Amino acid sequence: MTGVHQPDWSADLQWRTSSFSSIGNCVEVASDSGSVLVRDSKDPAGPWIRYTEEEWDAFIRGAKNGEFDDFP
């Protein structure tokens, strides 16, 4: 993870929210120059976190493998 950032140009990104989320209670993701950005959907003008493609891939593979199923 490369850190938390304050957005300055993030309005130009194509943010996506999971179809499984309830309205306003989810994270949003966007792709930017080989990175995946994550932000709180309730605060679209707030900070976001940048992950490398490798970090994001590891997280998605772990989620699909059930490694986070014990979280609330």
What does this structure look like?
The protein is of the alpha+beta class and 72 residues long. It has one domain (3-64). The chain is 17% helix and 31% strand. The protein has one helix at residues 53-64; strands spanning 3-5, 16-17, 27-32, 35-40, 48-52. The protein has a five-stranded antiparallel beta sheet. The longest helix is centred in the last third of the chain and has 12 residues, at 53-64. The protein is globular, with a radius of gyration of 13 Å.
Main pleated-sheet profile: 5 strands, antiparallel
In whole angstroms, the N-to-C terminal distance is 23 Å
| Derived structural class | alpha+beta
**What low-confidence regions span 5 or more consecutive residues with pLDDT below 50?**
none
The total strand number stands at 5
Mean pLDDT: 84
Shape: globular
Quaternary state reads single chain
Number of helices: 1
Q: Rg, please?
A: 13 Å
Number of domains: 1
Strand content: 25-35%
Top keywords for this entry?
single chain; 72 residues; five-stranded antiparallel sheet; 31% strand
Topology (elements, then pairings):
Blueprint: E1 3-5, E2 16-17, E3 27-32, E4 35-40, E5 48-52, H1 53-64
Antiparallel strand pairs: 1-5, 2-3, 3-4, 4-5
Summarize the structure.
This protein is α+β, with helices and mostly antiparallel strands and 72 residues long. The chain contains 1 helix and 5 strands; from the N terminus they run βββββα.
